[in-house]
TrEMBL record:
Pfam families: HYR (PF02494), Sushi (PF00084). The keyword Ribosomal protein does not apply. InterPro entries: HYR_dom, SRPX-like, Sushi/SCR/CCP_sf, Sushi_SCR_CCP_dom. This is HYR domain-containing protein. Residues 52-114 form the Sushi domain. The keyword Heme does not apply. SUPFAM superfamilies: Complement control module/SCR domain. Residues 198-280 form the HYR domain. Keywords: Disulfide bond, Repeat, Sushi.
Length: 300
């Protein structure tokens, strides 16, 4: 039964429209409480990984059978909410109140789910060459690991000075390790990679075409020349290749130098140079001039 509406006077209370003293008002409340003394909600169990934090208007704790475990009674008005331990977070809602009919009322869709470990992915180990003008140290630009936490706040680097994006490193190898800590769960992830500083050398020319010979036939002014393109390799990788002409270019009569130049990350370079020689076919009405053919190619 609902409690009567109460209103204050200086020293009186109005209970159910009838004025009474404070003692009479307390007595009416006590009578209602006595009627609910035998009402209790059943035990409430938390979802997996969580625990319940409960508050009760009247904590009724008694000894179990034969003086065993203590028994806690959930009287009407008791409220329980779901809590999650370190490393877990609450998803959804979980808040239950014991009703006057002895049934739990409220939302119990919440559950405790584990915080994910922070994401951390290191770049691959790298070889870095000394630049042509370097002697025993070189400038190395580091790529940061990929992560979903704050670089400044949650990432620890060993050695500590390697947290800079640009370093001056000597010849040799260095191992760099990163540890990411989740700001809430405190879970960590780690990764490492190596930087190898090596002596510089230009790219190697693995293949360079021989001199190509073509003849202009009939009344044509040029001929389309094709060739297999040069191949370069490098100890740290070729980053760019420039060329003076591409296969399929039209050339007129004469000798034409074709130049390919490869560059690596440290700005070392090497070239492949070969010739395209274009002659004109002999014709009865035109005096023909035969160019001398030099079978050569160049590397430098």
């Amino acid at each position: 039964m609902p409690h009567p509406q109460l209103s204050n006077t200086r020293d009186q209370r109005v209970v159910g429209g009838v004025s009474g003293t404070v003692e009479e008002w307390r007595s009416a409340i006590l009578n209602d409480s006595v009627k609910l003394a035998d009402v209790a909600c059943p035990p409430l169990f938390p979802p997996r990984h969580g625990y319940l934090e409960c508050s009760r208007p009247i904590d009724e704790i008694s000894d179990g059978p034969n003086g065993g475990r203590l028994k806690i009674v959930n009287r009407p008005g008791s409220q329980c909410i779901l809590k999650c331990p370190t490393g877990y977070r609450l998803e959804g809602k979980f808040s239950k109140i014991c009703g006057t009919t002895g049934e739990w009322i409220g939302d119990e869709s919440g559950t405790c789910i584990r915080y994910p470990q922070p994401k951390l992915s290191c770049p691959s180990s790298v070889n870095v060459e000394l630049h042509p003008n370097d002697t025993d140290h070189t400038t190395v630009k580091l790529r940061r690991p990929k992560t979903d936490v704050s670089w400044e706040r949650d990432i620890v680097v060993e050695p500590y000075w390697a947290k800079k994006d640009v370093l001056q490193l000597p010849l040799g190898s260095i191992n760099i390790s990163y540890t990411a800590k989740h700001p809430v769960s405190k879970l960590t992830s780690s990764c490492t990679f190596d930087v190898h500083v090596i002596a510089g050398s230009p790219p190697t020319v693995d293949f360079c075409p021989d001199t190509q010979i073509y003849t202009i036939e009939g009344h044509h002014q040029s001929v389309k020349a094709t060739w297999e393109e040069p191949i370069f390799s490098d100890n740290v990788g070729v980053v760019t290749i420039t060329k003076s002409n591409s296969p399929g270019t039209d050339f007129g009569a004469g000798s034409h130098l074709i130049t390919y130049e490869a560059h690596d990350e440290a700005e070392w370079s090497s070239k492949c140079v070969f010739k395209i020689v274009v002659n004109v076919s002999k014709r009865t009405d035109v005096q023909h001039f035969q160019l001398p053919i030099l079978y050569n190619r160049f590397y430098f």
